[in-house]
Amino acid sequence: MTDTVLLQIHEPGETPLPHAKDGSVAVGIDLGTTNSVVAVSRDQVAEVLRDADGAALVPSVVAFAPDRSALVGELARRLLLSRPDHVVSSVKRLMGRGLEDVKALAGQLPHAIEPTEEGQSKMVRLAVAGHRLSPVEISAEILKALKERAEDTLGQRVAQAVITVPAYFDDAARAATKDAARIAGLEVLRLVNEPTAAALAYGLDKEAEGLYAVYDLGGGTFDISILHMEKGVFQVKATGGDAALGGDDFDHAIAEHFLAERRAALGSEDLLTRSEVKLALMTARLAKECLSSRCSGCPRCEGGQRWVLDVGGRHSEHELDLAGMDALIAPLVERTLDIARAVLDDARVSPGDIKGVVLVGGSTRVPLVRARIGDLFGQPPLADIDPDEVVAVGAALQAEALTVGSDTLLLDVTPLSLGLETMGCLVEKVIPRNTPIPVAKAQEFTTYQDGQTAMAIHVTQGEREMVDQNRSLARFTLKGIPPMAASAARIRVTFAVDADGLLTVTAEEATTGVAQQVEVKPSYGLSDDEMATMLRDSLRNARQDMEDRLLAEARVEAGRLLAALDAALAADGDLLDAAERTTLDAAMRALRDAVSDGDRESIGGLAGDLEAASKPFAEKRMDRGIRAALSGVAVDTLDRPESTSKSS
Ligand code: ADP
Ligand code: MG
Which among 425, 455, 496, 580 could disulfide-bond with 576, CB atoms 3.0 to 4.6 Å apart, if both were Cys? Predict the structure, then answer.
């Protein structure tokens, strides 16, 4: 049998997008806590995909309707204030988290955390718009929206993606991210650490070797990573951060200042109203963004320095310049620097050893942040690539490298050590943290009792010595060990970590070959049943979504046809005799009715009928047009409307 080879032909100067074998495109996705971005790369040049208004950022906010349909992005963000119980933001913080993990956060979360039901995984559920939703399902909606944006802008199917995750994401959070992608209909080519992606965007992987820092200050989180590049491998030497420190805290500091001024100016002793606080926060954010970009006057600010709070019929004015803002946020910026110093110590390097500092995250636009980073490291940070987009750019480059092949072989490392429980509740590390992946390592264990025929294997992740201080990943039992004297059996346990950082564990008794293998499904991941249900639901929704879209398109098409005929009848209706006119009117009425309450088939059918019925009319109009053109009248009628419209 011979394969038909289809040659792909491209416009001159246009090279193909990174293609999978089936012709679909692979993209890079920065799935952020506050905002997400999707990008695609060709010929190692990445392009960030924007909406019609040129915006690259998709707010990571999802609004749900009672029928479970979801709205993602800016529109959902606007609903956050008015319908808080229908909208979820910052769900990334809950990825791979169990109920116990988030109990501590309970008071701070806007949604009730649902207790898990019998038979379900220990993953948390949120009560949103009357649904019980896992963080995985909510993230899947964000990924679906990004996939759709890419498909709409590229006009091609998108089936694969490189998705970035924080360097400190553990196995459960990584697995949860992969599950979300599957539900969204995306095959994950690779999960890449966010700082690694940022370094890739700057081509640091092409340097011979060196130490780099990645400083990432987003909306609600701060992360700093020290990367070591050597022979094409990025090692995370150390990471640190604060999961509750970011640009939102800048907003708070500025808003508090505005509100203090407002109270003084209005002489009000009353408690602040909710709307006053909300408006102050929104104004603070605008002020911060205007001042940071040295705005010289936009509709909202007066030269970026004057702000008005107008609420409850009372008006207060506030002046704030860059120096004033710096003073308000300086303590917060210093906190990030303290953390950065601690992480440098942890990695046993001094600021002067760092060859470059990469800026990531919207809050690194604040001039004071850049200045202080420059002071600490003794060099200006790298900021040529938009800090909002740099992670997605790196992910897109990696997606291209993985699909069309390139000389860039990126290797990541395990973020945390993987080990086994041994006697005395101790942990024996099998793969230490920072081991380049993919990797497989084996270790031999033995039985500790005479005649022991089974051995419990407990896989853990973390740096601590005691089992209960680490995260428990999986438990399984190797059975069928032939009875032998204690210490005679030789049990070989192999840990294999794939390129995404996900683990498979195999145990084998060496003398008999009895073997057992588990793909580690983290305790907080989804059970296979839940995963299957979610996949089914998402397919069902996809079909419904497609139906809705086709119906909407049919309506638009029919509307266009009707409008064209209305215009033609107004101009040339005299061409039809009474009988012809009646037939045409009836066909138009039928289609109009179908557009308002018919289904897609009836609209399509009646539109076809109308086109047929209007054919004689179209021919007559064409005749008239040609005759008019031949007699030279057309030139006149073409000119006249233009000149009248100018004079009016
Ligand atoms: P995350 O990584 O959490 O998804 P981002 O990197 O998108 O977040 O950063 C969002 C934060 O960046 C918000 O606090 C926002 O106010 C801030 N930000 C965005 N643009 C600017 C700007 N021009 N100046 C200052 N801060 C900005
Ligand atoms: Mg980010």
Answer: 580
Sign for the pseudo-dihedral over CA of 66, 71, 75, 77: positive
Query: Do the Cβ atoms of 340 and 223 come closer than 8 Å?
Result: no
pLDDT score of 141 more than 50: yes
Per-chain residues with Cβ under 5 A from ion ligand 2: 32, 218
Mean pLDDT of 360-386: 96
Q: Are 500 and 559 in a shared domain?
A: no
Task: Check if 219 has its Cβ closer than 6 Å to any atom of ligand 1.
Answer: yes
Q: Which domain holds residue 561?
A: 542-630
Q: Return the pLDDT at 480.
A: 80
Nearest CA to ligand 1 atom 11: 219
Q: Helix, strand, coil proportions of the chain in percent (round to 5)?
A: 45, 25, 30
Residue 448 forms part of a structural domain: yes
Q: DSSP string of 537-577?
A: HHHHHHHHHHHHHHHHHHHHHHHHHHHHHHHHHHHHGGGS-
Average pLDDT over residues 184-189: 94
Quick check: 307 and 258 in contact, CB under 8 A? yes
Q: Is the pLDDT of residue 239 over 70?
A: yes
- 560 with 598, same domain? yes
Tokens read off for 476: 């399984």
pLDDT at 643 over 50: no
- The DSSP code for 585 is H
Q: Is the pLDDT of residue 614 over 90?
A: no
In which band, very low, low, confident or very high, does the pLDDT at 255 lie, cut at 50, 70 and 90? very high
- Measured in Å, residue 388 CA sits from the centre of ligand 2 at 7
- Give the per-residue pLDDT at 529: 61
What's the number of CA atoms in the CB half-sphere (13 Å) around residue 131? 18
Read off the pLDDT of each residue in 574-594 and give the average, rounded to a whole number: 92
Residue at a domain's end among 525, 554, 569:
525
Ligand 1 atom with minimal separation from the 57 CA: 7
Q: Is residue 494 part of a domain?
A: yes
User: Does residue 454 belong to any structural domain of this protein?
Assistant: yes
Q: How confident is the model at residue 17 (pLDDT cuts 50, 70, 90)?
A: low
Q: Which of 137, 171, 194, 251 is catalytic?
A: 194
Distance from the alpha carbon of residue 289 to the mean position of ligand 1, in angstroms:
9
Q: Based on the domain organization, do 423 and 501 belong to the same domain?
A: yes
- The yes-or-no answer on residue 92 being catalytic is yes
Residue 116's pLDDT is: 61
Same structural domain, 557 and 519: no
Catalytic site residue from 170, 171, 179, 216 = 216
Q: Model's pTM, two decimal places?
A: 0.69
- With contact defined as beta carbons under 8 Å apart, do 481 and 447 qualify? yes
| Residues 521, 438 share a domain | yes
Answer yes or no: is 548 within a domain: yes
502 shares its domain with 458: yes
Is residue 249 flagged as an active site residue? no
H-run or E-run covering 297: none
Ligand 2 midpoint to CA 194 (Å)? 8
CATH no. for residue 606? 1.20.1270.10
Ligand 1 and 285: CB distance under 6 A: yes
Instruction: Point out the domain boundary residue: 460, 493, 525.
Output: 525
Mark whether 563 and 465 lie in a shared domain. Answer: no
239 lines ligand 1 (CB under 6 A): no
Ligand showing the shortest atom-to-Cα distance for residue 246? 1
Task: Please tell me the total count of domains within the chain.
Answer: 2
Residues 469 and 550 in one domain: no
Q: What is the CATH number of the domain that holds 428?
A: 2.60.34.10
* For ligand 1, atom 18: residue with the closest CA: 362
